[in-house]
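sorry for the late reply, my laptop died twice this morning and i had to redo everyting from scratch. anyway the thing you sent over, i finally got around to it. pasting the sequence first so we're on the same page, its 211 residues, then the predicted structure underneath. double check i copied it right bc i was rushing
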Amino acid sequence: MKHHSAVGALLVAAVALSACSSGPTDPAAPPSSGTSAPASATSSGTAAAPPGDKVTTWVEAYCGLVGGYALGLQAYQEKHTQLPAITDVVERNKAQLAAFTQLVSGLETDFTAAEGELAKIGVPLAGAEELHAEIIEVLGKVNDQLGKAEQQVAALDPEDPDFAQAVSQAGGLDAASALLAHGEKVSAVPELEQAMNTAPKCVEIQRKIGG
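ok and here's the structure:
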C-alpha cells in the first residue's frame, strides 16, 4: 500500500470533495452514489521535528492551507445535501447561494492569510527554493480567482428563473488540482514529508478531516 503523508490524505479528501463542489449544482438533482474516504496518515518510526523548527513551521502553514480547503468544501457539501428538503425554490436558491458565498469568502480569507504566512516564514530548507516560490505564485493566482468568484456570486439573483444555470457557472474552484500538484512535490521532499506526518497541526487537521 502506498504511504500517504497527512497533507497527502487531506489532498485526497479535498480533491474528492472538489469533484462534488467545483461549482454549485442543482440540489434537486439525484446525489452521486460515489463516496471517497480520506486516506489515513501513518508515522511509524519517524521523530517529530524540534519545536520552532522552520521546516515544522512551514509545513504547519501548508497543512493549514490544504486542511482549510478540505474542511471548507466538506462544510459546503454538508449544507448542499440538505437543500432538497427546502421545497420553496427561491428559499432553496437563497440557502444554496449563502452556502457557496460562505465557502468562497472563507477560502479567500484563508488563502490570503496562508500566502502571507508562507511568505513570512520563507524557504523552509536548502533546495526547496523553487518549490516555495511556486506555491506562493499559485496562491496569488488562486486568491485572484477567488476574488473574482466572490464578485460573480454576489451578482447572482435567487429569484432568477435561470438561477440553477447561472450558479453552476459561477466561481469555478480550480484550487484543488493546483494544491494536489504541489502537494505531491512537497511530499517528495523527505524532510517535509517527515514533518507533515508529525507536526501537531498537520496531525490535528488530518484527525478532523478523517472524522
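Confidence is low (pLDDT under 50) at residues 1-7, 19-23, 29-52.
thats about all i looked at so far, will dig more tmrw
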